[in-house]
Structure formats: structure tokens, C-alpha cells
Amino acid sequence: RAQHNMAEGGSCSVTSVPLCEDTAPTVAADSASGACACSDSGTQQLDKRKMPLPLPPHKRQAEEAQLQAAPTGSRGSPNDHETFSAFQQLTSVQRAIIRRFIGMLNTEEDSVVITNPLQQHGPIVYVTNAWQDMCGYSNERAIGQNPRLTQGEGSCPETIHSMGRALSKGHACRVRLINYRGYNNEPFWNCLSVQPILFNRKPVLFAATLKDYSYRLTRLVSLAPAQFCKAGDCLQYRVHLCDIGGARSLSQARQIDVTASHLDIEDLTEVEQAEVEQAGGGESDEESSSTGKQAPPQLLSKHVKRLGFGGLELEPEYLLDRLRHECAELGMPCQFQELEVGGTELMRMEVCSEASSSSGSENQSSADGDYGDYGGHSSLRAVLHVLPEDAEGTYAISLMRLVGDTFQFHAMYRKLRDRLSDIVSTPPLRPMKGK
């Protein structure tokens, strides 16, 4: 019934079976640290006891300051990357695309790395200053190297192999992986989106946007966060480079189509302009639209009266993990699924709240925002969804009562709202029209 209300009769496919943290079957995966396991949904879970804790903020800041002050760690001028041989070996088309791409970024805030799949080992050809600060490698140490230089003993091999398979097919993917900073080998949780950049319908570059989720994930003490690589059909839609408004759009996992009309030909030398024209110029916008360009995922309609939280610019997997953690802290058992509805990724979690058999005391405790004794019969079942609000990476959490007392359901909502206060700083869930 919840799926029918969410999709309004649309098609729905389950991409992973319901999981309960205590009962999910696992298969051991070979790892250098022996701390990685593969669940039946294809994600990787790490034993947090074997993962070193991040450095205290004051110590990390001191080491970052040393990195930036060191002669070999200075980040240099914005165009220093063009002096490296790995960049000079790029084709004129690749260089023109990178220059266009860089113009959309804030190099001090957007952590982005660009690699060249046309060269052996896919070397790094450009990194922003924010990437250098996050990963701890300067231009001199990063450009020309493979991105695996940030991997270590806690990085899950199965996740890395899955990402390699996706990129070999030219697929966009969304990844969560443990990486290591170059200046002190400190592990951190890296959430990245990888976008293939296509010219003449072939990948000529890969761009990845990185986000450090260490602070958020290490606080979820009731569960072990998973490492994973997702490259499903819902991520394989194309957008034109000219339709991307800025860095926020670039952070979404999808394929980016480039044509000659998107490039600043005037900024190229005569030789480079001739090479771009000889390359064929790519498809026109009309041709691309008629040769397999997929539409963006359909945005699902949300019920006007449904409780929830909107405007969350966070990774959907983190939002699901956060809900699981808070439910565990509140003593509410839950099961979750990852679904695809109308080409849109949707995360569904069903929560049960148990109360004592005394209805009078139950209603009173619910009105006060307390869940009472969990040793009795099941009195409330609710479903929570994590779903996109737009195509730019904004998500919402929607709550709906399936069975049970309305007062207790509202008490659950208030309890979750209070526990999510650090991320719920925007107005409540707003109605949104589906496309």
C-alpha cells in the first residue's frame, strides 16, 4: 500500500531484498585487513573495531598546515596542472573539456579529480585545491598517478572491483569507500560520484566529486557502515554539459555529453581548433536526444499531509543509515529495502514500535512523546522513505503510518525530528509535483 501511494500506480522493482542488521546473511570477502564482508545486497561492511579512528581536529589542522606550508605540498597557481606531462599528453578535445569543466568549480570548496581513461592506468590529470586538502596529496604527488594512491588496507577490494567494472563500461556510479590521506595515512570515509564525460558517445574523461563523511558515519555507533559501489540503471542517464548549472549539478552520478558547441573554441590554438573539428565535433544536441539519451529519473509525488523532512543535501545512503541508527537507539526494530520506482532510486524502511498492553497508559505516554515499555504487543507500524526532491542531489524523508495509534505516530515523528536536529534545519517536507 505504501509503494502504491508513493508511485501512484507506477512500476516498482526491488533492487535489494529486505535486510535486518541482525539477520542479514554475509559472505566473507578477501581483504588485506580481513575486516571486509560482502552482504547479499552487494555492499561491503567494515568491522569498525579494525578501523583506526580519525585524528582529533586540532591535530589534523596542524598537519594540514604543515602540508600547505611545505615547498613540495604547495598547491601552486590555478593553471599549474597544465605544466605536467600527464596533462600535456591529453588530446585537444580533452584539454578543452577540462578547461570548460574547471570554470564551473570552486577549486577551494569542490573536491574534484579528473582522470584520463585513454591512457594506460587512467592517470590523474587535474585535482582541485579542495581535493588536495581532503586527500593529502599535492599536484606534484597526484597528477600522473592512478587514483588508487588513496586506497589502503581498509579499502574493500570488492567495492574497488565493482567500480572498475562500472567504469570499464562507461557507467556512472556512486561509491562509498575508505580512503587514506597522503600526509598522515589517516583513514576517512569517502563518498564519491563518478561521471563519465562522453564525446562522440565515447568516454574521454572521468570526473569524480568527493565528500568526506567521516564525522557523520563514525557517529553511527549502532551499526557498521557499508562500503559499496552502485551503478544501476537509474544512474545511467545523460545530461549535456551546457545544461549543467554549477558544481552542485556536477556532484551527481550521471553521464555527461559534450559536443563541440559546448567548448570555448576561441580559447584554443589554431592547431587545437583543427584537431577538435577533425574529431567530428561530437553529436549535436538534437542527435544526442534521438540516439539513446535517457530522461532524468522521475520525481515521485508526495502526499500533501504526509509528515517528513525536506531540503536535505546529503547522500541518500547516509540518510538511510542515520534513520537505522536512530531507530536502534530508540529501541524500534526496522527492516529496509532499496527500490527503483519509475527509474527513481527509493529507499524504504518499515519501523515497528511496541508498547505495553494498557491502552490508557500507552496513549498518555505517546502524547508526552515517550514510547513506553517495548516488551508488549506491537502497536505501531510506520514506513519511512528516502527519496529525491530534485535532480540536483536534494532528498527528503517521508513518514507514513500503516497501523497503530495516531498520537503515537506523531510522537515518533517528534522523537525522530529531535534526534535529527543537526541535519533537519530546513522547513518540513513540501509538496512536489512528479514529472
From TrEMBL:
* Recorded superkingdom: Eukaryota
> What cellular-component terms does GO give this entry?
nucleus
Give the start-end ranges of region Disordered.
31-82, 274-297, 352-372
What InterPro entries does the entry give? PAS, PAS-like_dom_sf
- Show the ranges annotated as biased composition (Low complexity): 31-42, 353-369
**Boundaries of every PAS domain copy:** 111-213
Ordered alphabetically, the record's keywords are: Chromophore, Flavoprotein, FMN
Gene3D superfamilies linked to this entry = PAS domain
One Pfam family recorded for the sequence = PAS_9
Q: What name does the UniProt record give this protein?
A: PAS domain-containing protein
